[in-house]
Amino acid sequence: MSSSSSSSSSSRSKFMDSGFVIGQKEVTRILILFLGLTASCLVLYKTAYPQRLDVNNLTSLLASPSSPLPNLNSSEISPETIKPKLSFKEILENASTKNKTVIITTLNQAWAEPNSLFDLFLESFRIGQGTQQLLKHVVVVCLDPKAFQRCSQLHTNCYHIETSETDFSGEKVYNTPDYLKMMWRRIELLTQVLEMGFNFIFTDADIMWLRDPFPRLYPDGDFQMACDRFFGNPYDSDNWVNGGFTYVRSNNRSIEFYKFWHKSRLNYPDLHDQDVFNRIKHEPFISEIGVQMRFFDTVYFGGFCQTSRDINLVCTMHANCCIGLDKKLHDLNLVLDDWRKYLSLSEPVQNTTWSVPMKCLED
């Protein structure tokens, strides 16, 4: 009896020990599986939100299930986390046309303020004929953080260029030292654009785009430039040029020309890019490199210096021959008013009469 009881007890003990071992193994497997899944999730989380997971706190996160995870809807996640900063070349690639052409303008805080020139610039694209689809090709090079912040609220292709040597945020009065630095920084930047293989239209932000200008570009010509005053011959470099609107094809000739232009500032330290261009355009080196220049008729590319004679043909209007932000704003608003009135007409205008320049005529 005792022997049988002892044998039965021994069997139960072995069974229980065996079940305990099996139970331990199952628990171990479950724990390993759980930890493996947790680690995988954490790796995936780390990949998706690299700036939010502190790997040093991994133990505390596991030990404390109640520890709050980052709020993905909160303002703690910066725009840089969601949208990584693109290089200048990547922005150019995103904005370029099929033939690698981009439209470039520059912007500082003074021109980027609400209801300032940048708003008018964008509005002109929206109400122009055939210009709406060109906005996606516009790259705005911002000269200070505030300009970049405002640009990013209104437009897709914005790039902040570092200008640590000079503060370009305020209004830069024509021909002042900071104005000269800003103009030459622009020439340097455009040289880099050409070197990266992109053709470009450069446009000042105080130019209203009323029609698609691409059909009016010359089929030949490496370097094409607008004029303050046009005297009838697109090949004549003695037209009174204006650097606010240029079309340049990327090739060895144009790159060498821009490098020469930028370097020539050292010979004329008190002159801006446009005046230096006038000094170097007849230099033998220009003929040696063989760069082909063309100059735009103000009928198509007008401005306050010489307004377009025909609103049925005009592509752009520039607030040139005008010093002062307030004056430019006043008169460019009149340009857009004139354009809206023109669009409301049922028949082409026979005689073009602009409301501008008005304030820009004042000393």
UniProtKB/TrEMBL annotation:
Pfam families in the record: Nucleotid_trans
Source organism superkingdom: Eukaryota
Nucleotide-diphospho-sugar transferase domain span: 134-332
Protein name: Nucleotide-diphospho-sugar transferase domain-containing protein
Source species of the chain: Arabidopsis arenosa
Lineage: Eukaryota, Viridiplantae, Streptophyta, Embryophyta, Tracheophyta
